[in-house]
């Protein structure tokens, strides 16, 4: 994949800040590539980047429009199509990580062809995967798991990878979702893999390696989320993790998108993930907790982290406020 910078990050008509988490991830981890944001009427997300129209972005040198919205179902609306067609006509490429393919939208495919531009569908694998075999392989692997969706698994994984590299530890971030792929340039969006091959895709993504090498695997979904637990389980078995880091957002009243389902406890989430991970790695252990305290003031966040440490006997950090050094300190 070669998505040419600078980028215009397309937020469309995002319903809330979480809906634009793809764009936020790219803006945070690759700010040097981001020229501005494009928002349609009704957009409720804001990255703090300069607002641009498609034409303004093209005039200022943007080379690609990156669709930064992860809406439910991953659909491309007519309003989006109008804007993205305009980007292609203005001489820019378009990249997206949606379930719906850019290349399957006739107007966009035709616009790309007539302008000699490219459509990047980064969510859709371009290779075949084998079914998992569960064989033990050398190297070390860490997987982030969550109480729910959108609780910080990708951010935590990228922060852990950066901290390991800062310490000159041999490590790789393994992207398993569209935002991670857009950030690091490679990976497998496992929610677009046929169910029988999810674990096999995770095995392919985290191959045998040197004994001291760490693969930091971006987690997806939650074992407790009825919509996405299958992807979470496939990653858990296929990545064969030695270490788990639990990610949590403590202010939610129910599972994201499922108002009739409450959040599991941290202890139950740890127990369930470890139990199921032992199928492929009996020695797996949870090493710490990464808590997204963005919705809490500093005092409440400190108290929550302290109480979590006392209750679980594990280091608990907010990767944004505190960094992840204390989690790396306890890796086996």
TrEMBL record:
Entry-linked SUPFAM superfamilies: P-loop containing nucleoside triphosphate hydrolases
Give one Pfam hit by family name: DUF1611_N
What are the D-glutamate N-acetyltransferase-like C-terminal domain coordinates in residue numbering?
131-328
User: D-glutamate N-acetyltransferase-like N-terminal domain: from which residue to which, for each copy?
Assistant: 53-125
Query: Under which name does UniProt file this protein?
Result: Uncharacterized conserved protein, NAD-dependent epimerase/dehydratase family
What lineage is this protein's organism placed in?
Answer: Bacteria, Pseudomonadati, Pseudomonadota, Alphaproteobacteria, Rhodospirillales
């Amino acid at each position: 994949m070669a998505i040419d910078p600078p980028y215009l990050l397309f937020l469309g008509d995002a319903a809330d800040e979480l809906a634009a988490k793809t764009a936020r991830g790219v803006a945070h981890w690759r700010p040097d590539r981001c020229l501005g944001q494009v928002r349609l009427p009704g957009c409720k997300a804001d990255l703090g980047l300069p607002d641009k129209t498609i034409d303004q972005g093209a005039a200022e040198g943007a080379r690609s429009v990156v669709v930064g919205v992860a809406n439910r179902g991953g659909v491309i609306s007519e309003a989006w199509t109008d804007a993205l067609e305009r980007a292609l006509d203005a001489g820019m490429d378009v990249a997206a990580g949606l379930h719906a393919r850019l290349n399957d939208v006739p107007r966009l495919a035709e616009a790309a062809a007539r302008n000699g531009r490219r459509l990047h569908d980064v969510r859709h694998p371009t290779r075949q995967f084998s079914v998992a075999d569960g064989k033990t392989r050398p190297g070390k692997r860490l997987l982030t798991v969550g109480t729910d969706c959108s609780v910080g698994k990708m951010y935590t994984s990228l922060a852990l990878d950066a901290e390991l590299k800062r310490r000159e530890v041999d490590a790789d971030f393994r992207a398993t979702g569209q935002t991670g792929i857009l950030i690091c340039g490679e990976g497998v969006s496992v929610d677009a893999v046929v169910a029988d091959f999810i674990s096999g895709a995770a095995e392919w993504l985290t191959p045998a390696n040197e004994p001291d090498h760490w693969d930091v695997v971006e987690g997806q979904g939650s074992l407790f989320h009825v919509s996405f637990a299958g992807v979470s389980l496939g990653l858990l078995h296929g990545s064969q993790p030695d270490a788990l880091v639990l990610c949590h957002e403590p202010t939610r009243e129910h599972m994201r998108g499922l108002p009739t389902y409450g959040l599991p406890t941290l202890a139950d989430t740890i127990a369930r993930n470890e139990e199921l991970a032992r199928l492929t790695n009996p020695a797996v252990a949870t090493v710490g907790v990464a808590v997204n305290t963005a919705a809490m003031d500093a005092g409440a966040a400190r108290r929550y982290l302290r109480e979590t440490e006392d209750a679980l006997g594990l280091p608990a950090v907010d990767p944004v406020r505190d960094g992840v050094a204390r989690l790396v300190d306890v890796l086996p």
